[in-house]
Structure formats: C-alpha cells, structure tokens
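Researcher: I'm preparing a figure for a lab meeting and need a structural model of a single chain. I don't have an experimental structure, so a prediction will have to do for now. The sequence is pasted below. Please return the structure as tokens so I can convert it later.
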Amino acid sequence: MDDFWGSRRIVVTGGTGFVGSYVVDKLKQRRAGEVFAPTRQQYDLRVAEAVQQMYADLRPHVVIHLAAVVGGIGANRERPGEFFYDNLIMGAHLMEIARQRQIEKFVGIGTVCAYPKHTAVPFREEDLWNGYPEETNAPYGLAKKMLLVQGQAYRRQFGFRAIFLLPVNLYGPRDHFDPRVSHVIPALIKKCLDARVTNAREIVVWGDGSPTREFLYVEDAAEAIVLATEQYDGPDPVNVGSGFEISIRDLVQLIAQLTGFRGAVRWDVGQPNGQPRRRLDTSRAEQAFGFRATTDFRTGLERTIAWYESAQQRG
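Model: Understood. Here is the structure written out token by token.
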C-alpha cells in the first residue's frame, strides 16, 4: 500500500503519546507523504476554533484520532466529568469539522471500556449495545463510543468515511507509569520495582485478583490501526486484541517474577475490581484487514520492564 501512504498527509492526534508515537513510527516506515503529530500546546482539540486552525494549517487527507484523556480505575473515579466531556467534545469537533472540510478518511479509536459490564466472553462487536459499561469507567467508555455513533450517522447522511476500532487494554514501552493515571501493567511494574529497590516486604494491589484482562502489545496495536486505515472502510466497529486472557492474580505473580520482587501481595478488597472479565473476539479484524497479534505476552512484558528500568536509570 505504498501508493496509499505516499500521496497523503496524515494527522495523528495524540501522536506524541504512548500509542500515537508507535503509529507515527509505522507511518514513517510506510513512507507516508507527510505525518503530523500536533500537541495540545499547539491545538487544544476541545476548542472548535483550534480544530479549525489545525486542519487549515496541516491540510490532512486522513485523520487518526488517538488523543484522549485516559487513566486507570482511580483516575476514572476521581475525574469522571473530565473524562466524559473532554473525550466527547474532542471527537465531536474533530469529526464534524473533518466532514465540513471533506477530509478523505477519519479513524476513530474507541476502548474496550465501551462494552457492557456483563458481556458474554469473548466480546463480540454485536454485543456493544447490550448493556451499561462497568460503572468506574462508564463516562470514559460512553464518550469514546459516541465516535462510533457519529461516524455511522455521518456515513449514512453524508457519505463520510469514518471507521471505528475497539482496542483492548494496551501495554508496552513508552507507557505512562505515573500511579495517578497509569493502567494496571505499568502500575504493577512500578510497584514491584519500587518495592525491590526499597526492600519492601509487600505490595498492595486493588481488588481481589479475580478479574481477567486481555492485553495487546502497543506495537501490535499500532500495526492494527495502520492496517485498518489502509484497508478497512466499513461502518461496523472492529475489535483489536490478542485473544489472550489472564487473571489479575496471575498477572501480579508474573510481573513479580519478571521484576525480581519476592515479597508478599496484599489484596485491598475494599477497592473495586473493575469489569469481571475482558477478552475480545478478534476474528473481524483478521477478516477485514488481516490483523493478528504477533507479540508473546511474556516477551512484551520483558520489553516493557526493560524499557522502564532503562528510563529510570536515565533519570
């Protein structure tokens, strides 16, 4: 698909962030004509006039919308209004003004948090509207799901080419390890390494360890996003995952082993577990644009831990 990328200007919102930086790398590897990764300091995407100015300045053919206000369970509980409004309004402005400017294609990135709390496993795209999301991250999940509603409505009325991807929990190098906003894998890596350094006897983990999660290595996720941008042009949402499920209890044990933490784990059952289970049916992605995850989970964790330790040493 070199011809597809070589003739196009691509804007990746959130392109300097965790997932976005890998998407930008993939686009450059494909020799995309021009790739732009505007920052919040340049353009505040919550403000319609700033979105107008960004499009006028950069004149993209394709928009990959990865910018988001995100965090783990704690951040979602503390800032539900911010997580809802900021994510909703960014998507609404970006897609509406892209439609007005007749931008060729819009790639919306959703979240597994959009699925109902009690969804049959594996999660199929057809189940997306069969209930309310898990309460602790429902505002975030619903705001992101509106990208799907908007994209489908615009496709029907205006012929606007918007697609919508539903990634599972992501992890990998360059992730956010700040405990105020980090997700479960970077949070656990930091806890275990900090405890090892300080010779702490135990770490505390929220919940009881029973929930399960599916994780996708960030570089695999970026490849899926780029493949979908190239090859998919349908109204239906598409799951993006690995098909691998692990309990939080087993995840903690594995990360402790890989980081060299030998202390105890104390489960804080007064804190929420989050959604009981998460595992996606990923068959649509393979059929629609040939994506299948290739990074082994243990290998991905080892790379993530090594990157974080190296970053700590660099200061």
